[in-house]
Amino acid sequence: MDKNRVCPDCGGALRHDSSSGEIMCTKCGVIIEKDVFDYGQEWREFNWDQAMNRRRSGTPTSFTKSDKGMTTEIGKTSDIYSLSSDQRKQYFIMRKWQRRISTPIERNIKFALTELRRIAAQLNLPQILTEEAARIYRIAAENGLVRGRSMESVVAGSTYIACKKYKIPRTLKEIADVFPLDVKEVGKTYRFVCRQLGIKILPPDPLDYVYRFANELELPAKVQTRAVGIIEGAQKMEITSGKGPTGIAAAALYIASLIEDEKRTQREVADVAGVTEVTIRNRYKELLKKLDLEDKLVNLGLEIDINDDKVTEEE
Q1: Is residue 134 part of a domain?
Q2: Does one domain contain both 191 and 230?
Q3: What average pLDDT does the structure give for the chain?
Q4: CA angle 42, 46, 52 (to 5 degrees)
Q5: Domain tally for the chain?
Q6: Which domain does 132 fall in, by range?
Q7: 61 found inside a domain
Q8: In this model, does residue 301 exceed pLDDT 90?
Q9: What DSSP letter does each residue of 254-279 carry, written as one string?
């Protein structure tokens, strides 16, 4: 069981009970999966000879392969030219029929998984997340959810669901731009798939984006710590409710950079966060006012115009 998975209901840690074959939440007790098989090896190997003698299986199954890696693919190889003409003819016939006997859903899944692997490489997504996205897309295709929608939008929506499940900070815009697709289309498809498959996703947390944005802006650890404190204070006062997590994270980092004398412009922060400068200013203004941070900035000798991108030191 992947240790990064969390309970879809309460966000608690999951535990695998090997005696009952169940995966349950340690916090609320809900059973996530039952009759779970252990696919791990039951033998040990310490050298290549032992590995060759004790291994009795091939490569593990994978949702990122259209056949889950269980089908013998009749592919292309130069070895066929050492065969007789009759054997080569039989080979080409077998390969042609292998392609023909696949169902429309299988062909759709095959093309979709190729796209999924491409965007996973571009977004630098971990393998476990790619597997989850492939699993979600496969279920969606088998339930007829791709019909009437573009394959790319369902792939993008499945990828976004997997990112949110594993708390990998990727925005809808980032995923949509890889194809490229309209952000609204991807968002609509994402919500449709969640609704139809009964997938419960916790609201995104601005804290998930802080460290990533800070690294891209080359901000030191003290700025990140300050930004985390600002966001946690805003969450306690429920300032973040109903607002985009990327905008909150970006504004918190902008304020933290001013306080810690590691200034970044609103434009720089907005470009990294994928939001507009207007969003930065609105969230920034609101955080300053409700968290009583205006006086702190003034005491540091900063003259700040919330309607402009410029921050200057008082003379």
Answers
A1: yes
A2: no
A3: 81
A4: 75
A5: 3
A6: 104-197
A7: no
A8: no
A9: HHHHHHTT----HHHHHHHHTS-HHH
